[in-house]
Automatic annotation (TrEMBL):
<dbReference type="InterPro" id="IPR050136">
    <property type="entry name" value="FA_oxidation_alpha_subunit"/>
</dbReference>
<dbReference type="InterPro" id="IPR036291">
    <property type="entry name" value="NAD(P)-bd_dom_sf"/>
</dbReference>
<keyword id="KW-0511">Multifunctional enzyme</keyword>
<feature type="domain" description="3-hydroxyacyl-CoA dehydrogenase C-terminal">
    <location>
        <begin position="497"/>
        <end position="594"/>
    </location>
</feature>
<comment type="pathway">
    <text>Lipid metabolism; butanoate metabolism.</text>
</comment>
<keyword id="KW-0443">Lipid metabolism</keyword>
<comment type="similarity">
    <text>In the central section; belongs to the 3-hydroxyacyl-CoA dehydrogenase family.</text>
</comment>
<dbReference type="InterPro" id="IPR006176">
    <property type="entry name" value="3-OHacyl-CoA_DH_NAD-bd"/>
</dbReference>
<keyword id="KW-0442">Lipid degradation</keyword>
<keyword id="KW-0276">Fatty acid metabolism</keyword>
<keyword id="KW-0520">NAD</keyword>
<keyword id="KW-0560">Oxidoreductase</keyword>
<dbReference type="InterPro" id="IPR006108">
    <property type="entry name" value="3HC_DH_C"/>
</dbReference>
<dbReference type="GO" id="GO:0004300">
    <property type="term" value="F:enoyl-CoA hydratase activity"/>
</dbReference>
<dbReference type="GO" id="GO:0016509">
    <property type="term" value="F:long-chain (3S)-3-hydroxyacyl-CoA dehydrogenase (NAD+) activity"/>
</dbReference>
<comment type="similarity">
    <text>Belongs to the 3-hydroxyacyl-CoA dehydrogenase family.</text>
</comment>
<keyword id="KW-0456">Lyase</keyword>
Length: 700
């Protein structure tokens, strides 16, 4: 044993290096790992003449988990020299391993993400075990980082610049083993650990002279040479287009490290990569993203907000309403192995909803993600019906009929008598308070909000809404159901619009208010995109539909009475609907024109909606008005108890409503604002003075 790596040499001269950090559930690129790897490679070099080859594998369920994130998140600029030294050591050892002069095979027995894949890429051959849940890839970009232990350099040299960037490094995609092989990241996929180790030995025996392609004379980067040089100038521009001007530094750093790396030898490229990683690591943005997309996400998915009660899992789900949301929910449940009864008013409407699931499934089959037989089995789990008797025995119901409280009461009253006696009663309402809806059912303790996002098959978030009378068992069951269908559940307390619908409303209100003030529509969209929002607010409003936005605002207005803050933007929405009949994307016309469903240009009539003389508003003010409008409302949600934890608020804002990813979430944005929460409050007060009292900060 050498620290975190076991060294075993067999009679045939094959050394197995087993990654096995004692006392840790997973191996990470810690200082202990670095020291162990140095010692292991020292010994390999010393014994070289007696060796025939090396197998690198792991004793943990995952091959190797990647960087030591708890350590990394603490890094400050003062740590840069120490980080550089550590990375230099890690890379030098992997470099020595691949130039040992003996075949080295990675036996990837489980997930190899980030650092794990980097170790595997430094081996001459990679055999992956098709273990349940195993994932292979470089998720660094999603954490504000780059694969800086040789990942950028070796991926580019294996796959060529274009594929490495656009398929692997910039996407952060985590591949199943078979898909990783198709992408060129591993060479073989096997079904058992025995096959994996036997395969490694066989490869070693057949390749005594193994070396990395880039260490052989005459090596050229695939697609390289003149063709590559000709592409280079176009890359940054293409990338910016792809990122829509997003200000995330990681993709830009990955691009720069990759492109610069192609112009120099491997060892220099590895040094370039280190420089970029260290600058990302010591930046606040990486800390924000690691904090949210790793630590908060783990806490939220791990059940930090789930009461610790034992409950029976849901097996048969009734979905009421087979419209856009109901059909998506039925698909998501069936895809995860649950039986679904999908009910609408007519058999035709129910069948249409099932048809939506069928379309999604055939798309998956076409993409090779699902075989036809399994797709048919998934579809067979969905029963489409107009008959309430078909709901008999369902142990959960998710209601997704029109957003009308009376109708929702009616469908629950109709379903309750035939459901299992303890069935979970959930509504997918996007705004109606859960406590009010629960008043109509026999068992309000079993009633809960399960607010999905559109499109259900692609949106990872589910907002679980706890009403005043919702019991712990219902919450636990809803939570488990959410996890079962692969969603990330945040748990919030009841209130109009809960957390997400309410906060996103402030963003849309602020944007249309800018239109009323005479800010050109393209400037509003561009300001949001540059701030890091995935979609401009006017495009988003078209998606949501202006009629829905108006309806929700009127509900809020009716509930708040005289306290309701009237904004100039409200009139813009009303005029878009009443005078111009432009309700949004579904109708083919909203703030944008649409051609066969595709977004075209911003509508030429928008400038005429301004009620004030356009004045020059600085870009930063446009951006911060949108971000502060959301952040201030999130603070109110926290203070009013709608939010139960900051992690729920941050994850909800990132996965549900597109708050800029670089912030690590809407509440982290407040905490990390220059000057901290006090700096945020001071800036909010400034915005309040210039743009209106809605920006007045709460006491922080
Ligand atoms: P939709 O209009 O596409 O579908 C509603 C469906 O309910 C229709 O197929 C209708 O025939 C059916 N229905 C009406 N009365 C029924 C009854 N008595 N029994 C069974 N089915 C009945 O609406 P959508 O967009 O799917 O929304 C449904 C619910 O989900 C609403 O409460 C909405 O607020 C909520 N929601 C919508 C989101 C969205 O992005 N559209 C997002 C999250 C929640």
């Amino acid at each position: 044993m050498t620290g975190t790596i076991r060294y075993d040499r067999d009679a045939g001269g094959v050394v197995t290096l087993t990654l096995d950090d004692p006392g840790q559930s997973a191996n990470t690129m810690s200082r202990a790992y670095a020291a162990s790897m140095t010692a292991a490679v020292d010994r390999l070099e010393a014994e070289r003449d007696e060796l025939t080859g090396v197998i690198v594998t792991s004793a943990k369920p995952t091959f190797f988990a990647g960087g030591d994130l708890p350590e990394m998140i603490k890094a400050t600029p003062a740590d840069a020299p120490a980080l550089t030294a550590l990375l230099t050591t890690i890379k030098a050892d992997l470099r020595r391993l691949e130039r040992l002069g003996r075949p080295v095979v990675a036996a990837v027995n489980g997930s190899a993400l980030g650092g794990g894949l980097e170790i595997a890429l430094a081996c001459h051959h990679r055999i992956a075990l098709d273990a349940p849940g195993a994932r292979i890839g470089f998720p660094e970009v999603t954490l504000g980082l780059l694969p800086g232990a040789g990942g950028v350099t070796r991926t580019v040299r294996m796959l060529g610049l274009a594929d490495a960037l656009t398929r692997i490094l910039l996407t952060g995609r985590q591949f199943r083993p078979a898909a990783a092989r198709a992408a060129g990241l591993v060479d073989e996929v096997v079904g058992t650990p025995e096959e994996m180790l036997a395969g490694a030995r066989a490869w070693i025996a057949a390749h005594p002279d193994a070396a990395q392609p880039w260490d052989r004379p005459g090596y050229r980067i695939p697609g390289g040479g003149r063709a590559l040089a000709a592409q280079l100038p176009a890359y940054p521009a293409n990338l910016r287009k792809q990122l829509k001007g997003n200000r995330l530094p990681a993709p830009e750093a990955i691009l720069a490290a990759a492109v610069e790396g192609t112009q120099v030898d491997v060892d220099t490229a590895l040094r370039v990569e280190t420089r970029y990683l260290v600058s990302l690591l010591t930046s606040q943005i990486a800390k924000n993203m690691i904090g949210a997309f790793f630590f908060d996400l783990r806490a939220v998915n791990g059940g930090a907000s789930r009461p610790a009660v034992e409950v029976a899992p849901v097996t048969r789900v009734a979905v009421l309403g087979a419209g856009m949301m109901g059909a998506g929910i039925a698909y998501a449940c069936a895809r995860s192995g649950l039986d679904v009864v999908l009910k609408d008013v007519t058999a035709e409407a129910a069948a249409r909803g099932r048809g939506h699931a069928e379309k999604l499934l055939s798309r998956e089959v076409a993409k090779g993600r699902l075989d036809a037989e399994r797709a048919a089995a998934v579809l067979a789990r969905i029963t489409a019906t107009a008959d309430v008797a078909a709901l008999t025995g369902c142990d959960a119901v998710i209601e997704a009929v029109f957003e009308d409280p009376a109708l929702k009461h009616a469908v629950f009253a109709e379903a309750e008598p035939v459901l299992a006696p303890d069935a979970l009663l959930a509504s997918n309402t996007s705004t109606l308070p859960i406590t009010g809806l629960a008043a109509g059912v026999r068992r309000p303790a079993d009633f809960i909000g399960m607010h999905f996002f559109s499109p259900v098959d692609r949106m990872p978030l589910l907002e679980i809404v706890v009403g005043e009378r919702t019991g712990d068992a219902a919450l636990a069951r809803a939570f488990d159901l959410a996890r079962r269908i692969g969603k990330t559940p945040i748990v919030v307390n009841d209130g109009r619009g809960f957390f997400t619908s309410r906060v996103i409303g402030r963003f849309l209100d602020e944007a249309v208010t800018m239109l009323a003030e005479g800010v050109p529509a393209p400037s509003i969209e561009q300001a949001a995109l540059q701030a890091g929002y995935p979609t401009g607010p006017l495009a988003l409003a078209d998606e949501v539909s202006l009629s829905l936005i108006q309806r929700i605002r009127r509900q809020f207005e009716a509930a708040a009475g005289d306290d309701f803050p009237v904004l100039p933007g409200h009139a813009v929405v009303d005029r878009m609907l009443d005078e111009h009949d432009r309700p949004g994307r579904a109708a083919g016309r909203g703030f944008y024109d649409y051609d066969a469903g595709r977004r075209g240009r911003l509508w030429a009539g928008l400038a005429a909606l301004a009620t004030a003389e356009g004045r020059a508003i600085p870009l930063i003010d446009l951006q911060e008005r949108m971000m502060f409008a959301e952040a201030l409302d999130a603070l109110r949600c926290r203070d009013e108890g709608v939010l139960r934890s900051e992690a729920d608020g941050d994850i909800g804002s990132l996965l549900g409503i597109g708050f800029p990813a670089w912030t690590g979430g809407v509440l982290r944005y407040v905490r990390q604002y220059p000057g901290g929460p006090a700096g945020f409050a001071a800036r909010a007060a400034e915005l309040a003075k210039t743009y209106g009292e809605r920006f007045t900060p709460p006491a922080l």
